[in-house]
Amino acid sequence: MAKLPYLNRNDLPEADRFIWDDFVKVRGTAPGNIHRTIANAPNLLRRFVDLANELRNGTQLDPKLRELALLTVGRLTGAEYEFVHHWNMALRLGLKREQLEQLAHFESSAEFNQDERAVMRYAAEATNSVKVSDATFEALRRFLDNRRVMELVMNVAVYNAVARVIVPCGVELEPGTKKN
User: Fold this and answer.
1) Dihedral sign, Cα of residue 3, residue 67, residue 45, residue 178
2) What's the rounded Cα separation, in Å, for the pair 99 and 73?
């Protein structure tokens, strides 16, 4: 159950309503419950949306690798909202359902290649213990340049922060939203 209200455009101070309008313009949809929760602090919503848009649309990291990392974060933190939304996004990007069904067994599953395992291992270590082993980090450097490594690091860090908003605030899936 949500512990903070899901705000709508008209709940925001008039001077902050442009944040909602810009969101709709950029994403082509109304803000979801995570955004409507963060809207309780409009100054933070504006910056959060900008960073989320950059991580989603402004990086060179392969979007499929990004989604595998974010699904790992969502799964390990118990952030159902994050997990379901990114499950659906991963399918739209072309990841196979068989892969998604094997996320908990990525280390041994034949559904994942070496690079995908390295990304999920990084996400798991960063999520579970913050510290990442040298071996895991070096596995990323084998196929990602410095820019893409940092883009992965930032995605995992930011979505760990997102999980730490979703779970304590009880952010619920929007009505009708489920894993496809």
Assistant:
1) negative
2) 16
